[in-house]
Amino acid sequence: MLASGSGGNSMIVEAGATTLLVDAGVPATTLDRQLAKAQIAARPTAIVVTHAHGDHCRHAAELSERWQVPVHCSSSTRRSVRLGGRRAPTVFASRSRFTVGDVEVDAMPIPHDVPQVSLRFTHAGASAVLATDLGDLPEGFTEHLAGCDVVLLESNHDAKMLWDGPYPFHLKRRVAGDRGHLSNAQTGVALRTLDRRARDVVLMHLSETNNTPELAAAAAREALGDHPARLHVASQWGITVVETGPPVQGVLFG
Ligand SMILES: [Zn+2]
Ligand SMILES: [Zn+2]
To answer: Which is deepest, 38, 61, 131, 217, by most CB within 10 Å?
Structure first.
């Protein structure tokens, strides 16, 4: 995870000979700095964009040109925003399985105020699920997470901080709504259904105004109970590294 939050989102999925940049909400210079910090030398072989919000897709065209790599996005996202620079984006259905290089990707639609997907990445029997920018947990979400090694899940806000906080009322309603963002409590509901296979849980897309890493981690820990998964909390410009095969390297929180 190279960047996580409303200031810009990007992560790298490395598997086999494939390096995916997932979400492109960060400009090239910042990305270079974050890639160096994460000690990732390989340049991306493809870009995958989850949805049409600027903090996830603003720099997709520029980065696609820079690396001469395709942008993959859902057909609905393609209709709502210009991505991919001079080359047309490669389109996938919101509920589908497709491959990008050595990685198999399962997309599942999730509720947000623009069309949005959760993506499950699988390679050599290991898998990671990314689910961010969703207002509610859709039917079938538990199954989507089942058997997963790594779960990257939004834990956007503490409901009390949001409602007591400085946002204007319409924005509070949007964030808390069922097409907005997950609260720590909602993230907890998802974590309670997690099976024992999951080894790493990364909380992400935390609001810097309406949440704290401590509150998000405490809610997740309570929800996980005696589940042995390691808990990580991604920050806007921190680097979080998770590996699915031994040896395991992780940035533990707290
Ligand atoms: Zn976002
Ligand atoms: Zn969004």
So the answer is: 131
Name the region of 186 (left: φ>0; alpha: ψ -120 to 50; beta: rest): alpha
- 51 C-alpha to center of ligand 2: Å? 7
Distance 154 CA to ligand 1 centre (A): 9
Q: Is the pLDDT of residue 65 over 90?
A: yes
Residue 162 backbone phi and psi in degrees, to 5:
-60, -50
Q: In the structure, how many helices (H) and strands (E) does the chain have?
A: 9, 12
Is the bond into 247 cis (omega within 30 degrees of 0)?
yes
> Mean pLDDT over residues 219-226, rounded?
98
Query: What ranges do the domains of the chain cover?
Result: 11-233
Q: Is the pLDDT of residue 245 over 80?
A: no
Q: Give dist(CA 245, CA 235) in Å, integer.
A: 24
For ligand 2, the distance from its centroid to the CA atom of residue 246, given in whole angstroms, is 33
The one-letter code for the residue type at 80 is S
**May I ask the CATH architecture of the domain 11-233?**
4-Layer Sandwich (3.60)
